[in-house]
Design brief:
18 helices, 83% helix
Length: 423
């Protein structure tokens, strides 16, 4: 168990700098490889199911290993685990660069699916460990400000990178254009990992012990199976904390699960709608992405002030309810203009939503039991991703892409009501 300690001013400044540079470089990754991954698949002729699998496949892996990952992380050096897992995950974006040299277009689509699937193994560790690290190194009174600045910085980085990549995609012939974009993303991801590796924890188990035992114990944990994972442990706690699910935190996680499912319901539909219904060029799509992240940056600068006025719970309810505006406006679009308007509105809402989701979660998670609570959150996240990513393509095929957007908008707004009662 790690005891929450107040970081020294020097350590706080060091860690905030590392977290800010981490998110700047992550923005390079997000504005290039991540932003255009589904669009790339759509250009290659991927079906709605294949695009859905880009999210659903990793969710299945995450669900399978979240519990052993959470157990493995308990009592370990979380900053080191965050760094190593981020490196292994982001190598996949570099591998994607080489796919056109070995695979035809249809095989390339399945290559994208399998690579994202494999990347999700270290990605699961990264998801749990980073949230715990952030809560450990950033005191509660600094979190709204830190999240606001991280949102603003990533928005600037993503905006500039997206515009650059949009120009590259329009000016350079395929497949070289997408190879350049994924190479940019790989470099950004590795630089982000470098700064994650510079984070200092005030309390952690000895690095020498962790380095010697970590890989052996991780392999043993994977072999234990679900039955062993849920048995009482020597300290009196099992990995699957059913006691948490029975209490208020379980209902809180139910609201997160419903939201994530509604969020990911539309993600497989959006790139297909851009390409097939609106017939947008990669450059036009990049302009929309730049508008989204540019307005997200401006709104993020107000996050701390608005959070102090409303509180984390009211911010969460309001932003989740308004989150349905993006698919609603996009559903009415016939050309790029309403897509641009939807991007502006969506960027503002997402700035407040991203901060509210993180801050409210940290507010409800006790400082002395973060790995277990973050593991449950990761389960809710990946169950939601799986449900939304598989149901979204089915709805798109059954109702049509435009009608599926309207349904997505309605469900996202209803998720706000659930947070009102349970959040």
């Amino acid at each position: 168990m790690m005891v929450q300690t107040s970081p020294s001013p020097e350590n706080l400044r060091w860690n905030l700098r590392a977290l800010y540079w981490d998110v700047i470089w992550y923005g390079v990754l997000a504005g290039s490889a991540v932003a255009f991954l589904a669009v790339y698949a759509a250009r290659l002729g991927a079906s709605s199911l294949q695009i859905g699998l880009l999210s659903a496949g990793p969710a299945i892996v995450n669900l399978a290993i979240t519990l052993p990952a959470g157990r493995w992380l308990e009592g370990r050096h979380l900053a080191r685990a965050t760094f190593l897992s981020s490196v292994w995950q982001r190598i996949g974006f570099v591998i994607i660069v080489a796919l056109p040299w070995f695979l035809d277009e249809q095989a390339r689509v399945w290559g994208l699916v399998w690579i994202t699937l494999i990347m999700s193994v270290p990605g699961t560790l990264l998801s749990i460990a980073f949230n715990a690290v952030f809560a450990e190194v950033v005191p509660a009174e600094w979190r709204a400000r830190a999240v606001g600045w991280r949102n603003a910085l990533v928005a600037v980085s993503v905006t500039l990178t997206t515009i650059l990549c949009g120009r590259i995609l329009d000016l350079v012939a395929p497949p070289y254009n997408y190879q350049i974009v994924f190479l940019i993303g790989g470099v950004g991801g590795m630089m982000s990992s470098y700064y994650l590796g510079r984070i200092r924890l005030a309390s952690a188990p000895p690095l020498a012990v962790q380095a010697r035992k970590s890989m052996r114990q991780w392999g043993e944990t994977l072999r234990l199976g679900w039955g062993q994972l849920t048995r009482p442990r020597a300290k009196g706690k099992s990995l699957l904390r059913l006691d948490l699910l029975r209490g208020p935190f379980g209902l809180f996680m139910l609201s997160y699960l419903a939201f994530y499912a509604c969020q990911y319901l539309g993600l497989p539909i959006f790139p297909l709608f851009y390409v097939r219904e609106l017939d947008l060029t990669d450059g036009a799509i990049s302009v929309g992405g730049a508008l989204f992240h540019g307005t997200m940056m401006l709104a993020s600068l107000c996050l701390n002030r608005v959070t102090l006025r409303l509180g984390n719970r009211k911010m969460l309810v309001a932003s989740v309810t308004l989150f349905g505006l993006y698919p609603l406006i996009l559903g009415f679009a016939q050309d790029a203009w309403l897509y641009y308007i939807a991007s502006v509105v969506g960027g503002v809402v997402f700035a407040f939503l991203n901060g509210a989701m993180i801050n409210r979660l940290m507010e409800r998670v006790p400082a002395d039991d973060r790995p277990a609570h973050m593991t449950l959150h990761n389960l809710a996240l990946n169950l939601g991703i799986l449900a939304g990513s598989l149901l979204g393509p089915a709805l798109g095929d059954w109702l049509g892409l435009r009608e599926a957007l309207y349904l997505t908008a309605a469900l996202r707004m209803l998720a706000g009501l659930l947070f009102f009662f349970l959040g």
